[in-house]
Amino acid sequence: MRQKYLQVEGVPRKRNLRYTLTFFCGMWRHSYVVEGANGAMEFTVSQLMLSSSDKSERKWSAGLEAHHAYPQEGKPPDHAFCQAISFRPCWHDGTSLYAQERLLPQWIECGEDPVYVFQMLEREYQARFDSVGIGAIAPVTPVSVVGQTTEEKKP
User: HEC states along the chain?
Assistant: First the structure.
């Protein structure tokens, strides 16, 4: 497993960005996390095992998870120690349909560019955690990585 911590232009410095690439049973899994004070958005892309004879063709499956760092609807936390939000308790929900139909095509189109993916996840974070409507979020043009950080800055 390989994990990188980055700072990306267009994403506030108070966010913790993590990219993890794992290779398990002959298949790749990409995980991108944008973490902030209120929670985290996690986008995962996994290579599918093909049953066809054409092993050179790659097929992907995607998922998007929202990890809330505060109670949701009076329920107990789904995880007591959630890795996506620095091992805090988390209440999460997710969607594979939205990730497959909306985010995966962007991931493929951008050539797996982590800068673009983190900007895309920042928009998802804002829509869910910063009370910004999805209609107000404009597409972002990929830009270069401007530095690196290994931990989120505490207020």
Answer: CEEEEEEECCCCCCCEEEEEEEEECCEEEEEEEEEECCEEEEEEEEECCCCCCCCCCCCEEEEEEEEECCCCCCCCCCEEEEHHHCCEEEEEEEECHHHHHHHHHHHHHCCCCHHHHHHHHHHHHHHHHCCCCHHHCCCCCCCCEEECCCCCCCC
Largest Cα span, the chain: 54
Taking the model in full, what pTM does it have?
Answer: 0.73
Q: For the chain, what is the radius of gyration of the CA atoms?
A: 16
Token pair listed for 11: 């994403």
15 close to 42: Cβ distance less than 8 angstroms: no
Across 127-133, average pLDDT: 68
Report pLDDT digits (tens) over 37-72: 889 999 999 988 766 555 566 789 999 999 998 888
| Residue extents of the structural domains in the chain | 2-49+57-147
